[in-house]
């Protein structure tokens, strides 16, 4: 990846100085995922908590299959208030890794800058919990958020759903479920490099066998963890892989972004095109020279700053509608 001719020069310089424990699917097994998760927890423990007045609270609600303990991490503006817009967030991690805490700084920033409530769902992970468990957890958390809107001070007419990578795919699937089950009503979807298509048949999914963060092999591993031997088959649900959805009409306005040098590029391009053709107002951004997660790994570049500011602006406009 460092040698790719299209790589942004600032990102190239940052990668040469950066050491990140990248998930290596070539040596990973289903059994070794626990070690990767433990390493992520150690890394997160070394990151200072955000210095902010934002109130962060964990709520525990029943899982959709009847078990207790679905955790929702709620971020609220300091002080009392009502009528806040709400951003329901789904973290990334390739369907196999991740926790809401890894996005604390980002989500606190949304609360501070946009004056909104954020709810982040700690969905259960594959392979222990294959499809449909993760998306059903995400949908259950969205339903709980809507049902407790008055308690949280939320204006339900300004409810947005978003996520990054696997979280972006789960966010898109959650919005599909909300449409097909008759609610909650979602006003906007913010999909950041979303993981949408288990078939892995696009040119970009074949092109990036090497990447700074998430390559073809890792993507195949993540989809296999979620779907097992159904991955790529004819019977995969659109609630697992939203690119499979035949009908995208009636969905809320969308924002999608993706980097040029990543496996998700072409499936995200196609999803944006199909949304527009289905009558869904859609804003799309392709970041030249970027790779998957570039703005999080190397934030102090012009391209990273532009990507982050563009997302803030899009969500701000959605909340003002």
UniProtKB/TrEMBL annotation:
Protein name: Alpha/beta hydrolase
Residue ranges crossing the lipid bilayer per the database entry: none
Listed GO MF terms: hydrolase activity
Gene3D superfamilies associated with the record: alpha/beta hydrolase (3.40.50.1820)
InterPro entries xrefs: AB_hydrolase_3, AB_hydrolase_fold, GDXG_lipolytic_enzyme
Biological source species: Nonomuraea cavernae
Alpha/beta hydrolase fold-3 domain location: 89-294
A Pfam cross-reference name: Abhydrolase_3
Signal peptide: none
Keywords: Hydrolase
Domain of life: Bacteria
């Amino acid at each position: 990846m460092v040698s790719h001719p299209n790589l942004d020069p600032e990102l190239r310089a940052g990668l040469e100085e950066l050491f990140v424990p990248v998930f290596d699917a070539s040596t990973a097994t289903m059994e070794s995922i626990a070690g990767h998760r433990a390493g992520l927890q150690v890394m997160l423990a070394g990151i200072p908590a955000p210095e902010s007045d934002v109130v962060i609270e964990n709520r525990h609600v029943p899982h959709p299959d009847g078990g207790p303990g679905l955790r929702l991490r709620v971020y609220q503006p300091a002080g009392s208030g009502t009528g806040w817009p709400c951003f329901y967030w789904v973290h990334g991690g390739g369907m196999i890794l991740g926790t809401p805490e890894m996005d604390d700084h980002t989500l606190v920033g949304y609360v501070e800058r946009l004056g909104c409530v954020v709810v982040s769902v700690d969905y259960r992970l594959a392979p222990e919990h294959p499809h449909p468990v993760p998306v059903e957890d995400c949908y259950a958390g969205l339903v709980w958020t809507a049902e407790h809107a008055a308690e949280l001070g939320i204006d339900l007419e300004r409810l947005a759903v978003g996520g990054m990578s696997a979280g972006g795919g789960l966010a898109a699937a959650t919005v599909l479920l909300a449409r097909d089950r008759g609610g909650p009503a979602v006003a906007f979807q913010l999909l950041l490099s979303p993981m949408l298509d288990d078939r892995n048949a696009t040119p970009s999914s074949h092109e990036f066998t090497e990447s700074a963060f998430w390559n073809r092999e890792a993507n195949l591993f993540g989809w296999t963890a979620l779907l097992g031997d159904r991955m790529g088959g004819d019977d995969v649900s659109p609630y697992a892989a939203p690119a499979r959805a035949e009908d995208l009409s009636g969905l809320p306005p969308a924002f999608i972004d993706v980097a040029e040098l990543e496996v998700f590029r072409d499936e995200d391009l196609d999803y944006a095109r199909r949304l527009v053709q289905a009558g869904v107002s859609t804003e799309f951004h392709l970041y030249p020279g970027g790779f998957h997660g570039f703005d999080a790994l190397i934030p102090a570049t012009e391209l990273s700053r532009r990507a982050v500011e563009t997302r803030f602006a899009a969500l701000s406009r959605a909340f003002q509608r």
